[in-house]
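quick one, 310 residues, struct below
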Amino acid sequence: MVRALAAISDARVQGDALGSMEISFEPRILRGGHYRFDVGAVTGSAGSVSLLFQALLLPLAHAEATSRLTLVGGTHVPWSPTVDYLIGVFLPVLREIGVDITVSLRRRGWYPAGGGEIEAAMTPARGLRALRWETPAGPPCLAGISTVSRLPVTIAERQRRRALARLEERCLQADIAVAGDDDALGPGTSLLLTAAGPGRLAGFCALGRRGLRAEAVADAAVDPLFAYLDSGAAVDDHLADQLLPFLALAQHPSVLTCPSISEHLRTVAWVVEQLLPTRVSLDEGPPARVTVSPGAGGPGVPAMLDRRES
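---
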């Protein structure tokens, strides 16, 4: 990730080696363009392309030139948003605030094989808009995608059936698609459920693993969806922390609600306040309330965001 960030910012870097305990990173100029990065090129890992994509997206949104990214690695791996979540939840909200970007999934990459691939195309952002999502208006529209690679498609169908049955218990309906392919390097299965509507968007993803029944995968996505709906919040906990850096660079204050204040959100809020003239207020709720006030404090926007090259 450090080398990818260095490439797009023409950075001087020291200490970027495996096992290093100290690193120096001095960005000089943002360069839009066409980049290809393979997360597993050095160690052969199924490292998350979603996390790499999110790290590159914010600076590239401030470059003068358009950019195209090809990222290779894990697209559906634990402890990170899946590419399905990026496409169905994260990117639609970014478009709401002024980030023009599209992502295409070329090949799924599951843990531990990796080898997935996405392509992303983005144009420079011309000022980010605030987001004020506090109380969703009306009932949510529920949808989802149940996916398998190199496994019987009946597993994805069982995930779908279980999710629909759980939703029906609450008189809820959803349009859940089923997708299967044999292009991935290794097997895998996932279920993403989304809740959309005016002033709301949230996603809940569960990954399968050896020994875990398809019905248990469905339950792992449905349970947090129910908790989210019961909370009355606008976005899910993970989306709240992923949006925060972008809202910190918006032109006006933002307010959003989520089910709870996660440790990820607290950490991102602390980092944002160290680097930007922004104040982030966290109210436990319920639902939890996040207020982002650009220009309200801190040392100032990094000069790198003002040093651009087409």
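The first helix runs from residue 2 to 9.
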